[in-house]
Amino acid sequence: MKRPFPDTLVARTLLALVIGLALSHAISIALYLSDRSTALVSVNGEHVGDRIAVVDKMVREAPVSERANLLALADSPLMHITSSVQSTVAESDGEDEATKLFREALIRHLSPAPDRQVRLLHMGMVAPEGMHGPYEPGQAPDGSVDMMMVSLSQPDGSWLNFTVPVGSPETLWNLRFGLSLMVMLAATFILSAAVVIYLTRPLAVFAHAARRLGLDVAAPPLPVSGPAEIREASLAFNEMQNRIRRFVEDRTRMIAAISHDLGTPLARMRLRAEFVEDEEQRRKMLADLDDMEKMVFTTLSFARDEASAEPHTAVDLRSLLQRLCFDAADSGHRVTLSAGDVPVPFRCQPVAMRRALGNLIDNAVKYGGRAEVSLRQEENAIHILIEDEGPGIPETRFEDVFQPFRRLEQSRNRETGGTGLGLTLARTIIRAHGGDIMLRNRPGGGLRVLVILPR
């Protein structure tokens, strides 16, 4: 299943940063607008409360006959004033936060009067058709305005009614917030991406060096750069690579030395075997000496190849397999190749790869009568399939045939001259190139060897 987001450290870090900062930015804006709304109501309450108090005082002190003219003069789009016998605001047991703030500001400006009743109603956002004038300050995008109704009792029993805008707070989802969020996210993404990529680049180099070490222990050391932790890991990696290289070189030199030193006693034993009078015993001794010499020669050849440090170059596996199959066919063996017409480039040690694939083809024609070789490119790997028509190998013994000098008597006759190192060396070389070898028995009989190499 394909992931909806790249599964990398850079992508995950950027995703966490962007989501976290976006949420914190939204919460900060919401808190800011909430505080701004409270402050706006409080300031408007002070301003409107002062005007209401002035009008209330003028109406109380004016003669009854002049009150109507006075109210008409005081009425305006920013404060609609009416006088009625009954209050236009019903009594209420509860008030919201805006109404409480407005009441506190209004009471501070009204003249003290023990018989005064003050009733407030927060009408909320009123549509344009329900307003009494062209209110522009604090107007919402749809034209609605946050309105408050105030009713003040008068000494003669009448009520003085005010309808005033209290200023509508900005909503969180508006154009300015969207632009602010986009600018913040863009700046965060660009700066975070630069920092995260800079910090994680040494990890990619580290991973590449680790894969390269699996293919070549003599690879150049890892550059020591980046933060202190990465530098320390790089130094430890280089030290580990040096130890592995010294270990491999020491073991290879030791094997080469032992194999070389065995040559002299083998020669003396062969000379002495010639003086054995019993013909049957002499023949068996010489056969055993031949096997031992072949083992020593194969081991020395492998040690020389390891010590030579053959460079990696790009080769065409299709052409390499064609040459191997042609050579086997020229020797009288039955070999077929199916590799298509498209070159298959692969970077490897050509001599070592030729020896590994040659050993597998030789085994197929030697123990299976014929070899059917096919080459196929997959999405992430190159598959080389080598099949024969021999007796096959018991599944429980698949791993045994890769052990040095291990031969299966039921399928590997000593008379064929095998040393038991062919599959061992082949798998060592294939794995040194980042690949592997898999064995399977064919349903109709025979062995199927699958070589998998990374693209």
Give a description of the structure.
Strand 8 (370-377) and strand 9 (381-387) form a beta hairpin. The two termini are 22 Å apart. With 455 residues, the protein is α+β, with helices and mostly antiparallel strands. A five-stranded mixed sheet has the order 6-8-9-11-10. A four-stranded antiparallel sheet has the order 1-4-3-2. A two-stranded antiparallel sheet has the order 5-7. The protein has helices at 9-61, 67-74, 97-109, 175-215, 228-273, 279-308, 317-330, 350-368, 422-432; strands at residues 80-84, 118-126, 145-153, 159-165, 313-316, 334-338, 345-348, 370-377, 381-387, 436-441, 447-454. The protein contains nine helices and eleven strands.
